[in-house]
Amino acid sequence: MNGISNIDLAAWATSVTVQFSLLATLFYRRQDRRFPAFTIYVAATLLQSVAQFAIYEIWGFKSASTIYISWGVQGLIIILRLLAILELCRLVFQAYRGIWVVISRGLVVLVTLVASCAVLFGTYKSGLGILSADEGMGLALASAVVGLFLAARYYKVQAREPIRAMAIGFFLYSCFSTLNDTILEKWMGSYAQLWNFLGVMAFIASQVVWFWALRRAYPQEAFRPELLPADVYQALSPAVNSRLRLLNERLSRLAGVKRP
Predict the structure, then answer these.
(1) In terms of residue numbers, what domain contains 83?
(2) What is the CATH number of the domain that holds 162?
(3) What are 163-200's pLDDT values in tens digits?
Protein backbone atom coordinates (compact mmCIF):
# COMPACT_ATOMS: atom_id res chain seq x y z
CA MET A 1 0.00 0.00 0.00
CA ASN A 2 1.12 3.52 -0.79
CA GLY A 3 2.54 5.30 2.28
CA ILE A 4 1.89 2.51 4.82
CA SER A 5 4.69 0.41 6.29
CA ASN A 6 4.48 -3.23 7.30
CA ILE A 7 4.52 -2.31 11.00
CA ASP A 8 1.54 0.01 10.46
CA LEU A 9 -0.32 -2.79 8.69
CA ALA A 10 0.45 -5.15 11.58
CA ALA A 11 -0.82 -2.60 14.09
CA TRP A 12 -3.96 -2.06 12.03
CA ALA A 13 -4.64 -5.81 11.78
CA THR A 14 -4.12 -6.23 15.52
CA SER A 15 -6.48 -3.37 16.28
CA VAL A 16 -9.21 -4.76 14.04
CA THR A 17 -8.86 -8.19 15.63
CA VAL A 18 -9.14 -6.79 19.15
CA GLN A 19 -12.06 -4.55 18.17
CA PHE A 20 -13.94 -7.47 16.67
CA SER A 21 -13.23 -9.62 19.75
CA LEU A 22 -14.44 -6.86 22.05
CA LEU A 23 -17.63 -6.35 20.04
CA ALA A 24 -18.29 -10.10 19.96
CA THR A 25 -17.79 -10.25 23.73
CA LEU A 26 -20.29 -7.44 24.26
CA PHE A 27 -22.97 -9.35 22.38
CA TYR A 28 -22.02 -12.77 23.75
CA ARG A 29 -22.19 -11.53 27.35
CA ARG A 30 -25.28 -9.47 26.51
CA GLN A 31 -23.55 -6.34 27.70
CA ASP A 32 -24.75 -4.48 24.61
CA ARG A 33 -28.05 -3.98 26.45
CA ARG A 34 -26.26 -2.56 29.48
CA PHE A 35 -23.93 -0.34 27.46
CA PRO A 36 -25.67 0.56 24.17
CA ALA A 37 -23.68 3.77 23.64
CA PHE A 38 -20.39 1.99 24.32
CA THR A 39 -21.38 -0.84 21.96
CA ILE A 40 -22.16 1.66 19.20
CA TYR A 41 -18.83 3.37 19.85
CA VAL A 42 -16.88 0.11 19.52
CA ALA A 43 -18.80 -0.87 16.37
CA ALA A 44 -18.15 2.57 14.87
CA THR A 45 -14.41 2.37 15.57
CA LEU A 46 -14.33 -1.06 13.92
CA LEU A 47 -16.03 0.32 10.82
CA GLN A 48 -13.67 3.29 10.92
CA SER A 49 -10.63 1.00 10.93
CA VAL A 50 -11.90 -0.99 7.95
CA ALA A 51 -12.89 2.18 6.06
CA GLN A 52 -9.51 3.75 6.81
CA PHE A 53 -7.74 0.82 5.19
CA ALA A 54 -9.86 1.25 2.05
CA ILE A 55 -9.25 5.02 2.02
CA TYR A 56 -5.48 4.57 2.19
CA GLU A 57 -5.66 1.92 -0.55
CA ILE A 58 -7.64 4.19 -2.90
CA TRP A 59 -6.19 7.67 -2.27
CA GLY A 60 -2.92 7.02 -0.47
CA PHE A 61 -1.73 8.15 2.94
CA LYS A 62 -1.23 11.90 2.37
CA SER A 63 -3.80 12.90 -0.25
CA ALA A 64 -6.31 15.71 0.37
CA SER A 65 -9.24 13.30 0.05
CA THR A 66 -7.73 11.03 2.71
CA ILE A 67 -7.27 13.95 5.10
CA TYR A 68 -10.80 15.35 4.70
CA ILE A 69 -12.59 12.00 4.93
CA SER A 70 -10.44 10.69 7.79
CA TRP A 71 -10.89 13.76 9.97
CA GLY A 72 -14.59 13.96 9.17
CA VAL A 73 -15.09 10.40 10.37
CA GLN A 74 -12.93 11.12 13.42
CA GLY A 75 -15.28 13.96 14.35
CA LEU A 76 -18.16 11.46 14.55
CA ILE A 77 -16.03 9.08 16.63
CA ILE A 78 -15.29 11.91 19.10
CA ILE A 79 -19.01 12.45 19.63
CA LEU A 80 -19.64 8.72 20.13
CA ARG A 81 -16.80 8.56 22.65
CA LEU A 82 -18.42 11.37 24.60
CA LEU A 83 -21.77 9.56 24.62
CA ALA A 84 -20.09 6.36 25.85
CA ILE A 85 -18.49 8.19 28.79
CA LEU A 86 -21.77 9.95 29.57
CA GLU A 87 -23.36 6.51 29.71
CA LEU A 88 -20.87 5.41 32.37
CA CYS A 89 -21.56 8.56 34.40
CA ARG A 90 -25.30 7.89 34.17
CA LEU A 91 -24.90 4.33 35.40
CA VAL A 92 -22.88 5.46 38.42
CA PHE A 93 -25.26 8.26 39.43
CA GLN A 94 -28.54 6.84 38.15
CA ALA A 95 -30.02 6.86 41.68
CA TYR A 96 -29.30 10.62 41.96
CA ARG A 97 -31.00 12.26 39.03
CA GLY A 98 -30.12 15.81 40.02
CA ILE A 99 -26.39 15.08 40.13
CA TRP A 100 -26.55 13.19 36.83
CA VAL A 101 -28.41 15.99 35.03
CA VAL A 102 -25.88 18.61 36.13
CA ILE A 103 -22.93 16.37 35.13
CA SER A 104 -24.40 15.67 31.69
CA ARG A 105 -25.24 19.33 31.03
CA GLY A 106 -21.81 20.42 32.18
CA LEU A 107 -20.14 18.03 29.75
CA VAL A 108 -22.37 19.19 26.90
CA VAL A 109 -21.43 22.82 27.60
CA LEU A 110 -17.75 21.88 27.73
CA VAL A 111 -17.97 20.03 24.42
CA THR A 112 -19.74 22.97 22.82
CA LEU A 113 -16.97 25.34 23.93
CA VAL A 114 -14.28 22.99 22.60
CA ALA A 115 -16.06 22.62 19.26
CA SER A 116 -16.51 26.41 19.01
CA CYS A 117 -12.81 26.97 19.63
CA ALA A 118 -12.00 24.41 16.95
CA VAL A 119 -14.21 26.24 14.45
CA LEU A 120 -12.73 29.64 15.30
CA PHE A 121 -9.06 28.72 15.50
CA GLY A 122 -8.75 25.48 13.53
CA THR A 123 -6.81 25.19 10.27
CA TYR A 124 -9.02 22.98 8.16
CA LYS A 125 -6.70 22.78 5.20
CA SER A 126 -4.68 20.12 7.00
CA GLY A 127 -7.38 18.74 9.27
CA LEU A 128 -6.15 20.66 12.30
CA GLY A 129 -9.67 21.83 13.14
CA ILE A 130 -10.78 18.32 14.08
CA LEU A 131 -7.33 17.66 15.53
CA SER A 132 -7.77 20.61 17.90
CA ALA A 133 -11.24 19.35 18.81
CA ASP A 134 -9.85 15.85 19.40
CA GLU A 135 -7.08 17.26 21.57
CA GLY A 136 -9.46 19.39 23.62
CA MET A 137 -11.99 16.59 23.86
CA GLY A 138 -9.35 14.18 25.12
CA LEU A 139 -8.40 16.58 27.89
CA ALA A 140 -12.04 17.31 28.75
CA LEU A 141 -13.02 13.62 28.89
CA ALA A 142 -9.97 12.67 30.94
CA SER A 143 -10.94 15.40 33.42
CA ALA A 144 -14.54 14.15 33.40
CA VAL A 145 -13.42 10.61 34.30
CA VAL A 146 -11.27 11.95 37.15
CA GLY A 147 -14.19 14.04 38.38
CA LEU A 148 -16.47 11.01 38.19
CA PHE A 149 -14.17 8.96 40.44
CA LEU A 150 -13.62 11.80 42.89
CA ALA A 151 -17.34 12.48 43.23
CA ALA A 152 -18.15 8.79 43.58
CA ARG A 153 -15.45 8.34 46.23
CA TYR A 154 -16.41 11.45 48.19
CA TYR A 155 -20.11 10.60 48.32
CA LYS A 156 -19.60 6.85 48.77
CA VAL A 157 -21.30 5.98 45.48
CA GLN A 158 -19.98 2.67 44.22
CA ALA A 159 -18.60 2.54 40.68
CA ARG A 160 -18.91 -1.20 40.13
CA GLU A 161 -17.05 -3.34 37.65
CA PRO A 162 -16.86 -3.29 34.73
CA ILE A 163 -17.74 0.43 34.83
CA ARG A 164 -14.60 1.30 36.76
CA ALA A 165 -12.24 -0.49 34.36
CA MET A 166 -14.08 0.91 31.33
CA ALA A 167 -13.68 4.45 32.68
CA ILE A 168 -9.97 3.83 33.29
CA GLY A 169 -9.60 2.67 29.69
CA PHE A 170 -11.20 5.89 28.44
CA PHE A 171 -9.01 7.95 30.79
CA LEU A 172 -5.76 6.38 29.60
CA TYR A 173 -6.69 6.67 25.93
CA SER A 174 -7.88 10.28 26.30
CA CYS A 175 -4.66 11.31 28.06
CA PHE A 176 -2.43 9.71 25.45
CA SER A 177 -4.55 11.01 22.58
CA THR A 178 -4.22 14.57 23.88
CA LEU A 179 -0.44 14.24 24.23
CA ASN A 180 -0.12 12.63 20.80
CA ASP A 181 -2.20 15.35 19.13
CA THR A 182 -0.19 18.09 20.83
CA ILE A 183 3.07 16.69 19.44
CA LEU A 184 1.52 16.33 15.97
CA GLU A 185 0.51 19.99 15.90
CA LYS A 186 4.16 21.01 16.34
CA TRP A 187 5.78 18.48 14.00
CA MET A 188 3.04 17.73 11.48
CA GLY A 189 5.20 16.49 8.60
CA SER A 190 7.80 14.39 10.37
CA TYR A 191 5.53 12.99 13.10
CA ALA A 192 2.38 12.15 11.12
CA GLN A 193 3.08 8.48 10.45
CA LEU A 194 4.46 7.84 13.96
CA TRP A 195 1.41 9.67 15.38
CA ASN A 196 -0.88 7.29 13.54
CA PHE A 197 1.02 4.20 14.74
CA LEU A 198 1.18 5.32 18.38
CA GLY A 199 -2.50 6.26 18.31
CA VAL A 200 -3.43 2.79 17.10
CA MET A 201 -1.27 1.14 19.78
CA ALA A 202 -2.80 3.29 22.52
CA PHE A 203 -6.28 2.38 21.33
CA ILE A 204 -5.36 -1.31 21.32
CA ALA A 205 -4.21 -0.98 24.95
CA SER A 206 -7.53 0.63 25.93
CA GLN A 207 -9.47 -2.09 24.11
CA VAL A 208 -7.54 -4.76 26.01
CA VAL A 209 -8.57 -3.07 29.27
CA TRP A 210 -12.23 -3.04 28.14
CA PHE A 211 -12.07 -6.63 26.93
CA TRP A 212 -10.58 -7.80 30.23
CA ALA A 213 -13.29 -5.95 32.17
CA LEU A 214 -16.14 -7.34 30.05
CA ARG A 215 -14.89 -10.92 29.75
CA ARG A 216 -17.18 -11.97 32.63
CA ALA A 217 -20.96 -11.99 32.67
CA TYR A 218 -22.39 -9.38 35.04
CA PRO A 219 -25.99 -9.73 36.24
CA GLN A 220 -28.45 -6.90 35.92
CA GLU A 221 -28.36 -6.31 39.67
CA ALA A 222 -24.68 -5.41 39.51
CA PHE A 223 -25.53 -2.14 37.82
CA ARG A 224 -28.09 -0.96 40.38
CA PRO A 225 -26.93 1.01 43.39
CA GLU A 226 -27.41 -1.03 46.56
CA LEU A 227 -29.30 1.50 48.68
CA LEU A 228 -30.29 0.53 52.19
CA PRO A 229 -33.66 1.50 53.70
CA ALA A 230 -33.72 5.13 54.78
CA ASP A 231 -33.70 4.44 58.56
CA VAL A 232 -30.83 1.92 58.36
CA TYR A 233 -28.81 4.08 56.00
CA GLN A 234 -29.18 7.13 58.22
CA ALA A 235 -28.16 5.16 61.27
CA LEU A 236 -25.01 3.80 59.60
CA SER A 237 -23.75 6.95 57.88
CA PRO A 238 -25.88 10.02 58.72
CA ALA A 239 -23.26 12.55 57.65
CA VAL A 240 -22.70 11.02 54.21
CA ASN A 241 -26.39 10.46 53.61
CA SER A 242 -27.36 14.00 54.60
CA ARG A 243 -24.61 15.57 52.49
CA LEU A 244 -25.47 13.52 49.41
CA ARG A 245 -29.21 14.11 49.66
CA LEU A 246 -28.72 17.84 50.22
CA LEU A 247 -26.46 18.08 47.16
CA ASN A 248 -28.89 16.06 45.05
CA GLU A 249 -31.82 18.28 46.07
CA ARG A 250 -29.90 21.47 45.33
CA LEU A 251 -28.71 20.25 41.96
CA SER A 252 -32.21 19.02 41.12
CA ARG A 253 -33.64 22.47 41.81
CA LEU A 254 -30.81 24.08 39.84
CA ALA A 255 -31.36 21.78 36.87
CA GLY A 256 -35.15 22.10 37.06
CA VAL A 257 -35.68 18.40 37.74
CA LYS A 258 -39.03 17.63 39.29
CA ARG A 259 -39.13 15.18 42.15
CA PRO A 260 -41.11 11.99 41.38
Answers:
(1) 6-227
(2) 1.20.1070
(3) 989 999 999 998 898 888 778 777 766 676 787 788 88
